[in-house]
Amino acid sequence: MGTRIEQVNLHWLRMPLVHFFETSFGRTYGREIILVEASADGLSGWGEVTCGESPHYNEEWTEGAWLLLRDFIVPSVLGKTLGSPADVQRLTAGIRGHKMAQGGLEAAVWDLEARRNGNPLWKQIGGGAHKAIACGVSIGIQDSVGQLLQKIRTEVEAGYRRIKMKIKRGWDIDVIREVRREFPATPLMADANSAYTLSDVDHLKRLDEFNLMMIEQPLAHDEIIDHAVLQAALTTPICLDECIRSAHHAEQAIRMKACGIINIKLGRVGGFAEARRVHDVAMQHGIPVWCGGMLESGVGRAHNIALSTLPNFVLPGDVSASRRYWKRDVINPWVEVTPDGTIIVGDKTGFGYDLDLDYLAQVRVRQETLKAS
Q: What is the full DSSP assignment across 139-160?
């Protein structure tokens, strides 16, 4: 028996961050977030569109995603009977790119299907290998090295199992040296967000002295070949992020030895169906994966928890506590991390948390309802 999508509500939220977050793309003090609510048979499932406010991480941004959802993606699915939530990808296959917008709807349909079947989301997607998710944190570029060291100290004392620090030209070698001197045994990785080119190979080779877990996406978002050249010159494993938008990309990168690790972001690959395929390709080739974050609200964070229960998510991901980012989250209870740096996976139906509808209404700045005819 299939699911006929009867209605989709789009919710645009404006949520302030506890502290600014800076990458090589720039600095942000808040998030403009789209939540997608898909309804059928008196039930609703929720997903999150994880793009940024500007088209710098990839080509997507909040305003564009809203229009794509309203005018193209939702109409492709609305009123259709789906045999599986994976059919969202099939029905929207004619739309080139814009995986995050598509993934927001697909995630909502997976959550809806889990609720219809009385399952937790992790079970509905075929997960469950991990009942406790190992957590790391991502720390943005700071105003000073001292400020960065204090933030890392706070997170290490909170139990997080891996520290990721953002880097860019002028905020890399000397900064990491200070961090490694202060935290000699802490698992540490550096995320460049495409800040370098292959002409920087000699500079990037200097990272090998710091015993990093990985350097994430040092080169451009579409440079699998150049990453293969760079990986051959480094002993530090390269982790690909922006380059991997599909299982096919993962297969290409692995065959070319362009990486030793893959970051899977649910939105970047268009939802759970493709994320599972990327996961499976990496596992077949012995390449570990971890779940990346995009400063999600509790809804997207809960989806990341479900994804991280798949068996090859063996490295700590960017799935951390709500309070690290939000003064107040849109879910109850908030996502919490245990003192040993894990999130315990629950058995509650759907994505596993209640929506704080009162707060959602407070931070909502736009809403639109689309109904099947």
A: E---SSHHHHHHHHHHHHHTT-
Orientation of helix 272-284 relative to helix 99-117, angle to 10°? 100
Nearest to 325, CA basis, from 16, 47, 22: 16
Catalytic annotation present for 265: yes
Catalytic member of 265, 327, 348, 371: 265
Q: Are 199 and 169 in contact (CB under 8 A)?
A: no
Q: How far apart are CA 145 and CA 159, in angstroms?
A: 21
Query: Mind listing the domains of the chain with CATH numbers?
Result: 3-118+357-371 (3.30.390.10), 124-344 (3.20.20.120)
Laid out side by side, the sheet with 364-371 consists of 43-49, 26-40, 7-23, 364-371
Q: What is the DSSP letter of 334?
A: P
Which residue is catalytic, options 99, 164, 166, 168?
A: 166
The strand pair at 331-332 and 364-371 is best described as unpaired
Does residue 371 carry a catalytic annotation? no
SS3 content of the chain, % helix, strand, coil (to 5): 35, 25, 40
* Pairing outcome for strands 238-240 and 261-264: parallel
Residue pLDDT, tens place only, 205-262: 999 999 999 999 999 999 999 999 999 999 999 999 999 999 999 999 999 999 999 9
Q: Half-sphere exposure (CA, 13 Å, Cβ side) for 154?
A: 10
Identity at 209, one-letter amino acid code: E
What confidence tens digit (pLDDT) does each residue in 296-342 have? 999 999 999 999 999 999 999 999 999 989 999 999 999 999 999 99
CA–chain centroid gap for 187, Å, is 20
